[in-house]
Specification:
There is one protein chain. By secondary structure, the protein is an all-alpha fold. The protein has one domain. Helix content is about 60%, strand content about 0%. The two termini are about 20 Å apart.
Amino acid sequence: MKTDLKLRMKSPIFWFNTILSFVAPIMVYYKVSIDDFTTWNGILDVVLSALKNPYVLGLAFVSLWNNIVHPTNKNIKPLQ
């Protein structure tokens, strides 16, 4: 079974989930509220803080990985 990534990339829901899977862990870690998005400087502060923090980047990439990997793909095997 091949990964259906080409087919999934045509879906706007896939792209929404991909963006959300990367952004959501960052927003949760920094406890971002809607008030933080009232200025470009506030958004830039959160983005720069996330890029400087390897733990937050790790959380974001794990979330992104979980969105991209198809759980029924036979090419990815569990550890034995």
